[in-house]
Amino acid sequence: MSLVTQSARGASAFTLADPPWSASGIGDAPFYSKIDDDYAHTWPQLIDELHRIRQLEDNWDGEGTEAPPPGLVDGAIRLAQYLKTRGYPPADRVLASVNGTVYFEWHNPLGYGELEVMSPLEAEWRWVPKGSDATTVVRLTRSP
Questions:
Q1: Is residue 51 within a helix (H) or strand (E), and if so which, with residue range?
Q2: Percent of the chain topping pLDDT 90
Q3: Using one digit for the tens of pLDDT, what is the confidence trace for 116-130?
Q4: How distant, in Å, are the alpha carbons of 71, 74, 144 from that of 106?
Q5: Which of 50, 76, 126, 136 is the most exposed place for a label (fewest CB within 10 A)?
């Protein structure tokens, strides 16, 4: 699988009032088709799920996995609110990872997208078009 990486530190194409998220090149990688209205979840449901994830404790999966830090989940909530206000469709699911991060996942006829929130200030968008072996990666940052 080939990998395309773009850094977004300091860019202004992706902004949020409290405080701004930044990403350059996000328009070059389809985030998700905004034309399909058939979603299994709504943003409020996903934000509720993020609040549930925020309450997880270590060993939440019975395998000794550390829970995502509350501040990281707060960053994921802010990012979800931003995506909602920008008109992006809700993710198909949101989940805590075994790495202590939070994932948003989208599946559609165009491909697969995931957004991994790695810290309160950093996230990474990955997009794999259907039938492709290339992944586009865009780093998102939020000013403190």
A1: helix 43-54
A2: 60
A3: 999 999 999 999 999
A4: 23, 20, 27
A5: 126
Number of structural domains the chain divides into: 1
CB 26 within 8 A of CB 13: yes
Mapped onto helix, strand or coil, the DSSP state of residue 73 is: helix
**Type of residue numbered 47:** I
Report whether 57 contacts 67 (CB < 8 A).
yes
* Residues paired with 114 in a beta bridge: 105, 126
The Cα 55–Cα 61 span in angstroms is 13
- Indicate the pTM of the whole model: 0.76
User: What is the Cα–Cα distance from 131 to 33, expressed in whole angstroms?
Assistant: 17
Structural domain containing residue 20: 2-142
Residue 6 β-bridge partners: 138
